[in-house]
Structure formats: structure tokens, C-alpha cells
Amino acid sequence: MDNSHPMIELTIDGQTVQAAPGSTILQAAHSIGIDIPVICYHEATTPNAVCRICTVEVTGQRTLLPACVAQVAPGMQVQTQSERARRSRKVILELLASTVDLAEAPEIQAQMADYQADPQRYDGTRREAGYFDDNPFYIRDYDKCILCWRCMQVCADDAQYVNALTLGGRGFDSHIATFYDQPMPDTSCVFCGQCLGVCPTGALKPKRQALMEQGQPEDVIWLATRPPRRKERKP
Ligand code: SF4
Ligand code: FES
Fold first, then answer.
1. Do domains 1-126 and 131-228 have the same CATH topology?
2. Which residue has its alpha carbon closest to ligand 1 atom 4?
3. Which atom of ligand 2 is found nearest the CA of 69?
4. How many angstroms separate the CA atoms of 79 and 111, rounded?
5. Which ligand neighbours the alpha carbon of 200 most closely?
6. pLDDT digit string (tens) for 85-121?
7. Domain map of the chain by residue range?
8. H-state helical runs in the chain
9. Residue 232: predicted pLDDT
10. What confidence tier does 127 reach under pLDDT thresholds 50, 70, 90?
């Protein structure tokens, strides 16, 4: 935000708000206590506006605008709860539910309840992007992945700068991948765990937690979650 220039005045849901130039509609809304739903947005990552759940209606604009990246402008009139914006969010949620396992995504489930989204509305093909258990630290269950990109971003320039993750496939088959689909120990991953911290759906999970949920006995979990170096150590 640039504080050296005059503040910008706009209205959000009829309330007048002053926002610094360069602020997003989302930031301006938060400053007066108005909540706009988000999915891909995370305060620790650069917003890429891939989910579109945060779109709002702006008077005079032909299309809905994604509040997490659209910047405020003088005289802007924003409606966060217009019928069009709410219908758009509901459809996005229903499309997500039609393809992805959201059983471990409590925030999205709460949004579905709020928007009365019907998870059965679209009866289509479900994404089967694979379950990867290739290291002692975490599992990747991409059937639960909504492609929010948060993990890729913290793995790259938003935090860790190791770039172990990338996007694979195209269109419906797009998925988070490693380069050349290498097992995670063969990539640049340093197992910092930051991707797990930002994943909103349970697609990334500590291995210990995953094995406990499967009901595995403690000795199996202990062996499976030991780092390789310690496995090689003589008793
Ligand atoms: S694995 Fe999690 S953080 Fe990564 S893109 Fe999928 S849902 Fe988002
Ligand atoms: S939260 Fe704005 S596009 Fe996803």
C-alpha cells in the first residue's frame, strides 16, 4: 500500500470507506468489518485469483471483479452480497464439490452451508489426481486438491524458494506435481512443511496424522515416519 498519496474514497455495501491507493477491495472491505469469502487467497501468499469465490459486483463493470486482486478506485460502488455475486459463489462451490473430495475442507464446507450450495447439483467426472506416499514426512492426496496454488507459492517465491512443486497436465487434468513426476525425496524439497500449513483441504497432511487416521499401530507409524538417515543408523 502507498501511504504517500491521498486516500481513495469508495462505498462497499453502501458504507463509505477510505482506502490507500493500491489497496484491494478485499483489504478495504476488511478495514470496515465486511467479510468477503476467499478460498485461494491467503495472507501469506501472493494472490493469483484462481478460485474466483471472492468476486464482487461493481457498478458500471460488465463482469464481477475478484476482490482479492482488484484495486480500489475513486467513487467505486461495490456490492459484496448482490444476487449475482452470491449466485456466482454458489455455482463455484457446487462445481468444486462435483469434482473434488471436500470432506476435510471445513472452511469450504461452511461456505457451502452459507450459500446453500448443493454438492450433488453437477453430476460429473471426479478428479483423480493421485495419492502419493513417498517420504516419511507428509502425504499428498490430490483427490482433495482444489488447485488453490498456495502450496506451490510457499514452495517458491512467497517463502521457501525451493520450487519443488509445479503444475502438471492441462484443463480438467491440471494437477500439482513435481518436475518429471519425481518422488518427493528426489526433488529440491527440503521438507519444511510450509505447504502443509497453507493447504485448506487436507490434500497435504503430516504422515503421522495420516497413518493415525488409518488406525495404524504406533510401531508401524514410528518406522514409517523416521527420516532415512536415522533408519540407516546402527542400533
Ligand atoms: S495441495 Fe492443498 S495447498 Fe496445494 S493446490 Fe492443492 S489444495 Fe491448494
Ligand atoms: S480468493 Fe480471490 S480469486 Fe480466490
1. no
2. 151
3. 2
4. 18
5. 1
6. 999 999 999 999 999 999 999 999 999 999 999 999 9
7. 1-126, 131-228
8. 25-31, 83-99, 106-114, 150-155, 194-198, 207-213, 218-224, 228-232
9. 54
10. confident
Domain 1-126 of CATH type 3.40.50.261? no
pLDDT (mean) for 53-76 = 98
Number of the ligand 2 atom closest to the C-alpha atom of 67 = 2
Please tell me the predicted confidence (pLDDT) of residue 150.
97
Pocket of ligand 2 (CB under 6 A): 38-41, 49-54, 66, 68
Give the nearest ligand 2 atom to 49 CA: 3
> Is the domain covering 131-228 a CATH 1.25.40.10 domain?
no
- In tens, the pLDDT along 188-215 reads 999 999 999 999 999 999 999 999 999 9
Q: Which ligand is nearest the CA of 150, by number?
A: 1
DSSP characters for 119-136? TTSS--PPP---EE--SS
**Any idea which residue has 456490492 for its cell?**
79
> How far apart are the C-alpha atoms of 171 and 162, rounded to whole Å?
26
